[in-house]
Amino acid sequence: MTRSAPSAPPPPPDGAAPDPTGVPDGGPAGPEGLGRPRLPSPLQEVREPAFERRGLRLLLKRDDLIHPLVGGNKWRKLAPNLRAAAESGAPALLTFGGAYSNHLRATAAAGRLLGLPTIGVVRGDELADRPLNPSLAHCRADGMRLWFVTRAEYRRRREEAWLAELRERFGPVYVVPEGGSNTAAVEGCVALGEELRGLADVAAVACGTGGTLAGMAAGGPPAVGVPVLRGGFLAAEVRGLQEEAFGAPRGDWRLAEGFHFGGYARTAPELTRFADDFEQRHGVAVERVYVAKLLYALTALAETGDLPPGAAVAAVVTGAPDPLTGP
Ligand SMILES: *Cc1c(COP(=O)(O)O)cnc(C)c1O
Which Gene3D superfamilies does the record match to this protein (predicted)? Predict the structure, then answer.
């Protein structure tokens, strides 16, 4: 099957102190090479009438400020994977995403900063013959090799057999799953929950793959996840990720369904108005695919009395608006 299992880094020469980072000299760097992240990320209270009317407090957990290029939850999920990739000695990192994937963008940026070659397997072979959209163009400019596959192939992204084929093609790559959500990523997000302990009574986050929620809920206060995709599959995903990472479900979490506005990257005038207003009132730029839906959902839950009375509610700002594609 695989002539592709990454080989372990060589042991230190006799007498040399073992490198505490496990990174071979001159080999690929771990996340330290990205520069110092801003952690713990700032927690900022904002005054929102819908919350104040109910005696609730709204706190913004500013993960968007962690790193200028590998920001938000992508830093928390990628950093442990970059460490593992460096330790594995694999010469390149391969991952998966859609045409507008923030995860692909963050991975490409990290790869450029670390000198680690990256390969992005992109859903949609029809894209191969078109001019790249701004997001993918940015990935390529950061040195990511883009590999377009059919939707049928993309659905096989978790199958060992297909991963083996990809390793045949690209060599002994370190593979990070779609959205960056694997056990290392979930463990990386535990710290997000821990940073909120004692400071918030409820922690809320928008969900794509659910990896951030899975980790945050394990380490922090009771959690609410707001799915931005349709489909109702997310609870099982989060449970699966927690079982993989911790051996069992962890923490107290639930999903607030019904705020996806039709699905991934779908929007509505009402949501746009809400996000524009929020930005103006608080001077905080609101990313529209995830963060706008989170803040909208929390406001609705506050109004319907679905948050614990008197609670301090932390909303995780998981990313900043995309400078290429707008808010
Ligand atoms: C990727 C992303 C998410 C989703 O995180 P998951 O761990 O996949 O649920 C949320 N917010 C922003 C801004 C993102 O880029």
Answer: 3.40.50.1100
pLDDT, average across residues 47-59: 97
Instruction: Please tell me if the CB atom of residue 253 comes closer than 6 angstroms to any atom of ligand 1.
Output: no
> What's the pTM value of the predicted model, to 2 decimals?
0.89
Same fold across 43-68+182-316 and 91-172: yes
As given in the structure block, the two tokens for residue 215 are 């980790």
Q: What is the pLDDT of residues 285-306, one digit of tens each?
A: 999 999 999 999 999 999 999 9
DSSP state of 313: E
What residues does each domain of the chain span? Answer: 43-68+182-316, 91-172
Q: Which numbered atom of ligand 1 lies nearest the CA of 64?
A: 13
Query: What confidence category does residue 325 fall into, taking pLDDT thresholds of 50, 70 and 90?
Result: low
- Is the CB of residue 72 below 6 angstroms from any atom belonging to ligand 1? yes
Residue 58 has pLDDT above 60, yes or no: yes
* Dihedral (Cα; 307, 308, 310, 314), 10-degree rounding: -60
**CATH architecture for segment(s) 91-172:** 3-Layer(aba) Sandwich (3.40)
CATH of domain 43-68+182-316: 3.40.50.1100
Task: Report the nearest-CA residue for atom 15 of ligand 1.
Answer: 102
